[in-house]
Design goal:
about 800 residues; alpha+beta; Beta-Lactamase; seven-stranded antiparallel β-sheet; 26 helices; extended
Length: about 800
């Protein structure tokens, strides 16, 4: 956060009245804090000096530990620990841990003044002055003995309840709030034909398939009504269950809601049984109906005892039943509580005013409605223990819908409050952590993309102060061209639909300068998956990008130098030999000044051939240079490719015959297009010359045809073909499929031909023929200067 100076203070000291008022406010705040600490009765809150001796003592400490202030102040805190902890040096270890981690929390047995032990939750936090010097510690202690005992009893109760449900003679099937099966007992497995492992997670209608025995129509599933209306529902008469294997059984059942502490329906439980035998006699049917009624009442009581405390009354408000959890919380055993007024057993007060709170059972019996407790309600148990609770009360209705009693479900919310406080502290730590990050811009956006929070890293990277940017749309961080293309909105859309967006691109600072940013956007959702906003993390990678670009430029430069040196080395070697031969021939002519005879003529011819070879090599090198530097120019003109092929074939026919190869041609009548004729002829010359060189003594066939908007040129021979490993590299510079010692040359002909074809928007593909030999296929657009689909093999 940006610190603001007092108005009108300039850069000097603040006015005296401002400093005095601040000190007065600080003293008042400290006095209020001391009053708050002194009024706390459920926590022992006291200070220790740096050596661990008691420095302050509050009312809660006196009640929990039994010492008066004058008895304990100045004593070492080790007096509260059991002998075994003292032997292990536990008190000193906890202080050291608090100093190291900034906070330490511990649970264990502690000792009161009278020597009795209690299970305590302890938090120790070091106190430091603004310069970071240790001033002492704050120690907060909570007596959790009753909670520890309760947890053990609750565990035993839940185990007993599970065994009871699975041993009930009737079929029991439970669902969640989406009507998916969550539990099914062995009897229900037998009747439905579904094992619990197979049934869990499936819709209730699939596992519990019922029909009307008379109409054979599908019967309404009672669970659906239970979940929709939150009421107990029974099946209509003449209902049959169809098991998985098709067996049909008449059944009777009931469904009831499973509610949470706020009375919200979180699922349903269905109890049913096979009544085949009951129908065999009226007496059996009567007994069965009575059993169903008793089973429903038993199930209701069982359900209300799961996890939470349950207390039932008659219509006069006298206790009729109380489960073990309620016994523990109220301090009343069931045999003692039955018959007593509810207000005597369930004694509740307002935590703030300390006045007796209105008992919800009274309203339930008067109005016949479900009632919940108000906030800040505490239960005073029989032994005086006070616990914050949450509860709900509901009427017990007879067949005519008249209230015949009430059931009260409640629970101890101490652990929940502790969890809420832990969450609050965690959120505060997270806020502090985010506030300390300076290398990343870490901030929140609302669902529309407006900035909702701002950290120091964001201010450092983007240049905006918090008060300048809050509420502004995050599109101001984008370059104008990205805003015009709608990139800000698209990034939020991708993050919302794909749960994450990540990108590297240019962003804009407050001063208009650009920086290369790595951005991650993640949606924030509430418990119902609704979009609440986004978290955006931005890192400035400008320097890293510059380094990578410089490294790439250096690598490219080194590679260019390497290729140049390789090129010059090969070129100088290849040029030297024919040049020397030419010079020798010319010297021979010069030595013979006699009249020109037949021998001189032959020498001159050889000299001319060598000169021609040298000119050809130089031209190939020049072509490679032009291609490498991007200076290969094409002069497009309209001509018939068939005519050009015929001309080149005739030009090379003598060379082919000299190599023992028959050169044949197959062309279409006319294939007109726009190409650089000189370069296309160069492709033909190189491909045919390549076949003459490597497939000497075998027939060579040249063909050209048209496929849609492409001209297809093929040069095929019956030579040894091309090794499969070389097919992918023969079009590279200085590459050849055979050794240069056998065939000579620079290995540039195919490279030059391939590059010319690419410059025309086409391509060359080399392949081996099934019967032996090689095939080079050239694909050329008829008009490379017009936009067209990409040429593919």
């Amino acid at each position: 956060m940006t610190r603001r100076e007092p108005r009108g203070s300039g850069h000097g000291e603040p006015p005296d009245e401002t400093r005095d008022s601040a000190q007065a406010r600080a003293r008042a705040a400290e006095q209020r804090f001391q009053l708050v600490v002194e009024s706390v009765r459920d926590y022992a809150i006291f200070a220790l000096d740096p050596s661990g001796r008691v420095a302050t003592w509050n009312t809660g400490a006196k009640l929990i530990k039994g010492y008066l202030p004058e008895e304990i102040i100045g004593k070492d805190m080790s007096i509260f620990y059991a002998p075994e902890d003292l032997a292990r040096g536990r008190p000193r270890a906890l202080l050291d841990a608090a100093l190291s981690a900034g906070r330490v929390e511990d649970e264990g047995w502690h000792v009161r003044k009278d020597g009795s032990r209690f299970w305590a939750d302890v938090v120790i936090t070091p106190i430091r002055d603004p310069q970071g010097q240790l001033q002492g510690f704050v120690k907060v202690t909570r007596d959790l003995t009753l909670r520890k005992d309760a947890e053990e009893r609750l565990r035993q109760s839940e185990e007993s309840l599970g065994a009871t449900l699975y041993s009930i003679g009737d079929a029991v099937l439970a669902t969640d709030e989406e009507a998916r099966v969550t539990r099914i007992n062995p009897v229900a497995e037998r009747l439905t034909g579904w094992s619990e492992r197979e049934a869990v997670g499936r819709p209730i209608d699939e596992v519990f398939a019922i029909i009307n025995e008379d109409t054979r129509a599908k019967a309404p599933n009672p669970v659906r009504r239970v979940l929709a209306e939150g009421v107990v529902v029974g099946l209509a008469n003449h209902t049959a269950l169809i098991s998985r294997d098709g067996t049909e059984r008449p059944i009777a059942d009931s469904g009831a809601p499973i509610r949470d502490a706020q009375g919200v329906t979180r699922g349903a439980v269905l109890v049913f049984r096979d009544i085949t035998k009951e129908r065999r006699s009226e007496e059996a049917l009567r007994k069965s109906q009575e059993a169903v009624r008793l089973s429903e009442e038993s199930l209701r009581a069982t359900l209300y005892s799961i996890g939470d405390a349950v207390l039932a009354t008659d219509e006069q408000g006298r206790v009729a039943r109380i489960n073990p959890v309620a016994e523990r919380l109220t301090g009343w055993l069931e045999k003692e509580a039955v018959g007593h007024p509810i207000i005597e057993v369930f004694n509740i007060v307002n935590e703030d005013t300390r006045a007796r709170a209105v008992n919800p059972v009274t309203r339930v019996l008067m109005e016949g409605v479900v009632v919940g407790l108000a906030n800040h309600t505490a239960l005073i148990s029989r032994d005086g223990t006070e616990r914050p609770i949450a509860d709900s009360g509901a009427p017990i209705l007879d067949a005519q819908g008249k209230p015949r009693g009430a059931v009260l479900v409640f629970r101890d919310t101490t652990a929940e409050r502790r969890a809420e406080e832990a969450l609050r502290q965690s959120e505060e730590k997270l806020r502090q952590m985010i506030g300390s990050v300076r290398d990343y811009a870490l901030f929140m956006l609302d669902p529309k993309g407006r900035v909702a929070s701002w950290n120091p890293g964001a201010e450092r990277i983007k240049g905006y102060r918090e008060e300048e940017i809050l509420g502004e749309h995050f599109s101001r961080f984008f370059p104008p061209e990205d805003i015009a293309m709608g990139k800000p909105a698209r990034e939020l859309e991708i993050a919302a639909t794909q749960e994450r967006f990540e990108d590297e691109n240019w962003r804009v600072r407050k001063d208009g300068s650009r920086f290369w940013a790595h951005v991650i956007i993640t949606p924030i959702r509430d418990s119902s998956n609704g979009l609440e906003g986004f978290v955006k993390i931005t890192r400035d990678l400008t320097e890293r990008r510059k380094t990578e670009e410089e490294r790439l430029r250096l690598a490219q430069a080194k590679e260019a130098i390497r290729l140049r040196d390789e090129f010059l080395s090969i070129a100088s070697h290849e040029l030297k030999t024919p040049l020397t031969a030419l010079q020798l021939q010319l010297l021979g002519i010069q030595d013979r000044v006699a009249p020109i005879d037949e021998g001189v003529t032959k020498r001159v011819e050889r000299a001319m051939r060598v000169g021609g070879r040298l000119a050809q090599l130089i031209e190939e090198l020049l072509n490679v240079s032009r291609i490498a530097t991007g200076k290969l120019e094409l002069n497009f003109e309209a001509f018939d490719l068939s005519d050009a092929v015929r001309e080149i074939v005739e030009r090379l026919r003598d060379s082919a015959e000299s190599a023992g190869s028959e050169l044949s041609i197959g062309v279409a009548d006319s294939i007109n297009g726009q190409w650089d004729r000189l370069r296309i002829e160069q492709i033909l010359m190189n491909l045919i010359s390549n076949s003459i060189k490597y497939a000497a003594g075998t027939p060579i066939q040249v063909s050209v045809c048209r496929e849609k908007d492409l001209a297809i040129l093929k040069v095929q021979d019956k030579g040894p073909g091309i090794p499969e490993a070389d097919l992918s590299r023969i079009f590279e510079r200085f590459e050849r499929a055979s050794s240069a010692r056998h065939y000579g040359g620079l290995g540039l002909g195919l490279y030059v031909a391939d590059q010319i074809a690419r410059a025309h928007g086409g391509m060359i593909v080399a392949s081996n023929l099934p019967g032996g030999g090689a095939c080079f296929t050239v694909r050329l657009p008829l008009d490379p200067q017009q936009p067209a689909a990409a040429v593919s093999a």
